[in-house]
Amino acid sequence: MSTHPDPYQYVVLRCVPRPDREEFVNVGVVLYCQAAAFLDVAWQVDSDRLHVFAPGLDVDRVRDALRFVDGVCAGDARAGAAAVQSLTQRFGLLKAPRSTVLQPGPVHGGVTADCAAELSGLLDRLVR
C-alpha cells in the first residue's frame, strides 16, 4: 500500500452473450496502477442472474474466461505467452476489445493510495 495516491486505470469486464443485442452484465473489474506495480482482477459470477439474462449461456465458459484473466494478471502459466510480458502489456491485452462472451468496457481512471481496496470497492459498486 502506498502512502500517497497514485493514478490507476481500470476496465469493467462484461458478459456479452449476444453482441448483436448490445446487452451485457458486469462480471468483473481489472485495475492497473503502474506506480504501484499493481495489476489484478476481482470478479463475481451470479449464475442465476446470467441464466435469466441469457438462457442457455454456458456460465462455465464465462468463469473459464475470468480465470484466464486471473492468470494474465498474475503472470502465471495459465496466461501462456502473456505471462512473460510487462504489467503494462498485460493490461493492454486485457483492455483490448474482442468479440468473445467476455469483453472489456471503456478504460476509466482515478487515484488511490490502496489499489487492492480500490479494486474491491469498484467490484462492489460496479458488479455486485
UniProtKB/TrEMBL annotation:
Organism superkingdom: Bacteria
Name the Pfam families on file. Answer: DUF3037
InterPro entries the record matches: DUF3037 (IPR021398)
Q: What is this protein called?
A: DUF3037 domain-containing protein
Species per Swiss-Prot/TrEMBL record: Nocardioides acrostichi
Q: What is the lineage of its organism?
A: Bacteria, Bacillati, Actinomycetota, Actinomycetes, Propionibacteriales
